[in-house]
Design goal:
The structure holds two protein chains of two kinds. Chain A is of the alpha/beta class. Chain A has eight helices and 23 strands. The longest helix of chain A is centred in the C-terminal third of the chain and has 19 residues. The longest helix of chain B is centred in the first third of the chain and has 7 residues. The chains are: A alpha/beta, B alpha+beta. The interface between A and B is medium-sized, with 25 and 20 residues.
């Protein structure tokens, strides 16, 4: 059981800056994120896309923004719990017990939900029959590539994951690559390589096809694909891999008894607390009159939510507002002289 | 101003007037029309405002810009008449446009 002042759910820009504000006012926090890296949507959706509306930063990419935010909170040495997801909350005498999917437990008076639009999960095949083999022969990520040796593998998708795995697995497996259109969004060099391998018949390439059905008695045997004109083909397959990018799902957050307005959480604009005492929501996941889904709004919301957390984390202390330019206490916390 | 018809997957129709300069996605969201999620808010970073546009209108719409098809690869059951509704800007020319929503967005 880890005791802390605040658990932040989500390591996107909003969660990171909230952590900074907590550090500045002398609180400790633990940050949990479902992704395997820090940065949230900035790193997952647009690491290379320039952002032009961060105050005083004329232009930076999602990756640069993330790097700078990580740098900014370094002095506080906060722990990140990546590849993990907050699953369950329980309140015991004004203290929240937070449980994660990986079995970690936190004890905290405050939870800040900075979860964006929820957690990222792979988009799955729309076909019902895919569910039967999900996790065994229908996969959306690869942990151990040796299982594909000398097997037939049907790979769906047109991005880098699909192309890279098609190229890699074509060394040891019989690979079919299926994509819904002629163009690929993967790196030009990979697209070139795929075309070469297809010409040499090392890879069977099917463009303008999508999945129709997955078949097999007991274990998966073949996959049926269809063109838009309705033409079908059947491919023998031991494994079917889908790389359609990630979708965002609210996930367990919807089960915590919070008021929800569609997929977002209403908050007050004084400290961004939800209908549950000690649970705050900031960034894209919160809503209030006039809400803008901008990173800068998330920063503001995080700063105020941090002060809201102070009340519950230090009930016997009075919060004092201080400037980073003037306060020696803050400079000590930042480790600057 | 353009009158736009949004048809849910179950056939339910919604006809609304959408101001010029808004997107077809915003027309749906602002009028509480179900079937368009628009998780990313219109930054072409997700594929949850996916719609199908029948041939006649599809050809009349301004062409897709770079990146839209890449996002559509990640949509639910895209086809050659798929568009992201956040990338369709409303103008008088779009009066009478009909869009069909997929079974689901995520």
């Amino acid at each position: 059981m880890i005791k802390t002042d605040v658990v932040i759910v989500g390591a996107g820009p909003t969660g990171l800056f909230c952590a900074h504000q907590l550090g500045i006012i002398g609180l400790k926090c633990e940050i949990v994120d479902n992704l395997d890296k820090i940065g949230g949507q900035c790193i997952e959706l647009y690491p290379d896309k320039p952002i032009y509306d961060i105050p005083a930063v004329p232009k930076c990419t999602g990756e640069e923004l993330t790097k700078n935010l990580i740098e900014q909170i370094k002095p506080f040495n906060f722990n990140f719990h990546l590849n993990d997801r907050v699953q369950e909350l329980r309140n015991e005498n004004q203290i929240w017990i937070v449980k994660t999917t990986n079995g970690k437990e936190f004890q905290t008076p405050n939870i800040v939900i900075a979860g964006g639009v929820g957690s990222f999960e792979p988009r799955k095949f729309p076909t019902k029959s895919a569910e039967k083999f999900d996790g065994t022969q229908v996969l959306y990520s690869i942990k151990d590539k040796t299982i594909f040796k000398d097997k037939s593998v049907a790979i769906f998708g047109g991005g880098d994951s699909a192309l890279d795995w098609a190229i890699e697995l074509s060394n040891t497996s019989k690979v079919s690559l299926i994509h819904r259109r002629d163009e690929f969004r993967g790196a030009p060099a990979s697209v070139q390589k795929i075309k070469e391998l297809s010409q040499k018949n090392t890879i069977n390439l099917f463009t303008k096809y999508s999945i129709k059905d997955i078949k097999g008695n007991g274990s998966l045997e073949e996959v049926e694909i269809k063109s838009e004109a309705g033409e079908s083909k059947t491919i023998k397959a031991d494994y079917v891999l889908g790389f359609f990018g990630l979708i965002m799902q609210l996930g367990p957050i919807s089960e915590w008894g919070l008021n929800l307005d569609k997929k977002v959480i209403p908050v007050n604009t004084e400290n961004f607390e939800t209908n549950k005492k000690g649970i705050f929501a900031i960034g894209d996941i919160c809503t209030y009159p006039g809400k803008l889904k901008l990173i800068l709004s998330g920063f503001h919301e995080g700063a105020l939510a941090a002060r809201g957390c102070f009340k519950y984390a230090r009930p016997n202390e009075k919060y004092r507002f201080e400037f980073t330019t003037a306060s020696n206490t803050i400079k000590n916390r930042l480790g600057v002289k | 101003m353009a009158k736009i018809k949004y048809i849910e997957h179950n056939g339910k129709e919604h006809i609304v007037e959408v101001q010029n300069g808004l997107t077809v996605m915003e027309g749906a969201v602002q009028n509480d029309i179900p079937g368009i999620d628009a998780d990313c808010g219109g930054s072409m970073s997700c594929a949850t405002c996916h719609v199908y546009v029948k041939e006649d209108w599809y050809n009349k719409l301004p062409k897709k810009e770079m990146g839209e098809d890449d996002m559509l690869d990640q949509a639910y059951e895209p086809n050659s008449k798929s568009r992201l509704s956040c990338q369709i800007m409303v103008s008088d020319d779009l009066d009478g446009l009909t869009v069909h929503m997929p079974e689901k967005q995520v």
